[in-house]
Amino acid sequence: MILHKGETLFRQGETGPLYYVKSGLLKISRLNEDGTQALVNIITPDEIIPHHSLIVQNPYHGTAIALTTCEIELVPTESWYRSIAQDTELCRDIALRLQDKLRMMQQRIDQLTEVTPMNRLIKLQAWFKQYVGTASINDILTQEEIGQFIGLRRETVNRLLRNQSTAAKVTANTQSKLPLGPKNS
């Protein structure tokens, strides 16, 4: 199935099948009791979701929304769970997938331990580049979502991104004025 940017794959609290993400990016957001949304995860290609239902089916923890056009395959739930009981290699594969996802989430938690907002943003950008690839974080996430990911207000994210952009322009301008090297005599 093809899911276009902004379309919902599943909703928080519902129970349903597993999905394999062949391509594209999804965000998982949670509706808090106070009515606010919180971005809790980004799903990348080659993931089976929801992660918390890989062994036993549970209600969806959040709502999955396409950040980009995605190609998604439905994982037949009954045969999946039956296979787990019989196939040790599948269990090992699931354990390795969950291990990789846990490592990814631990790195996300590290971003939140940074004291300065700029360092939080820099760590998120590095994390994003490692797990998402070449797309700019600004092209995929809104400033509000970036802020939710690192515990900052949208206004702070806006200021930090502007400061980064200005610093990059100054650096590029300075480098273009540097001499090319010694002159031939």
Task: Quickly list its features.
four-stranded antiparallel sheet, alpha+beta, Jelly Rolls, 8 strands, single chain, 185 residues, elongated
Tally the helices: what do you get?
A: 6
Look up the CATH topology of the domain at 1-87: Jelly Rolls
Highest-level CATH class of the domain at 1-87: Mainly Beta
Strand order of the largest sheet: 1-8-3-6
Task: Give the topology string: H per helix, E per strand.
Answer: EEEEEEEEHHHHHH
SSE-based structural type: alpha+beta
Taking the alpha carbons of the first and last residues, their distance comes to 67 Å
| CA gyration radius, whole angstroms | 20 Å
Helix percentage range: 40-55%
Main sheet characteristics: 4 strands, antiparallel
Instruction: Give the amount of beta strand, in percent.
Output: 15-25%
CATH architectural group of the domain at 1-87: Sandwich
User: Would you identify the CATH H-level superfamily of the domain at 1-87?
Assistant: Jelly Rolls
Write down the overall mean pLDDT.
86
Instruction: Name the overall outline.
Output: elongated
Low-confidence stretches: none
Q: What's the total number of strands?
A: 8
